[in-house]
Design brief:
CATH class: Mainly Alpha
Shape: globular
Radius of gyration: 19 Å
Largest sheet: none
Structural class: mainly alpha
CATH topology: Methane Monooxygenase Hydroxylase, Chain G, domain 1
CATH superfamily: Phosphate transport system protein phou homolog 2, domain 2
Number of helices: 7
């Protein structure tokens, strides 16, 4: 520990990667919340808000990557910083794909879609809170991990339930549309789960 503190004094961290990751996590949450709102209130305002959230999240990620290449030292493994940022980016991208696909396919919200997105929102919220804890209270960040994993398990089960219903449908085109949207939400949750794995590794190394 003393050696680490000496190195930190010799080569201080120039950029606040904790803050950048936290900002990206909050923007991801905003995007998923907007998707959830759009499912109940189909308005162009919600569409525009989500698209703007995606642009804002992309800007944060690109700035982080630029600074990551310039930084001599980082608060924890730079590979983990990069990977967790990419994982978060995929979550909001799949949230965008869900909304745009539903609009393009003229697919109405059903109970499976709504529950999947609500669980995704709960997991994304817990993830954003955990990332905010990383710098000063990493053990609190760790306490959020089981909750996030539970939401992913719920999304997986809802996906299976939804697909079981889809296979019983007589309209193959409607079944295809639902399958595509279900898969986008499932992929968003899977990437959140991958980001949680990196988060857990970071916590272990910080404690």
């Amino acid at each position: 520990m003393a050696k680490k503190k000496f190195i930190d004094r010799l080569f201080p961290v120039k950029y606040n990667f904790y803050e950048m990751l936290s900002n990206q996590a909050r923007m991801n949450l905003s995007g998923v919340e907007t998707l959830c709102n759009w499912l109940t209130v189909d308005s162009e305002t919600n569409v525009e808000t989500l698209l703007q959230d995606v642009k804002s999240a992309d800007a944060i990620r690109m700035d982080l990557e630029k600074k990551l290449t310039k930084a001599f030292s980082t608060p924890f493994d730079r590979g983990d910083i990069y990977t967790i940022s990419i994982g978060m980016d995929k979550v909001i991208e799949y949230a965008k794909s869900t909304l745009l696909s539903m609009k393009a396919y003229n697919l109405q919200t059903n109970n499976i879609i709504l529950q999947m997105v609500e669980n995704l929102k709960t997991g994304t919220e817990a993830f954003a809170e955990a990332v905010a804890f990383l710098q000063n209270e990493p053990l609190k960040a760790q306490s959020n991990i089981p909750k996030i994993r539970e939401t992913h398990n719920a999304v997986e089960q809802l996906y299976r339930d939804g697909m079981a219903d889809v296979f019983q449908e007589n309209d193959p085109m409607d079944a295809f549309r639902k399958r595509e949207v279900y898969h986008h939400i499932k992929d968003a949750s899977a990437n959140l789960e991958d980001a949680v794995d990196i988060l857990h590794r970071i916590v272990v190394r910080l404690t």
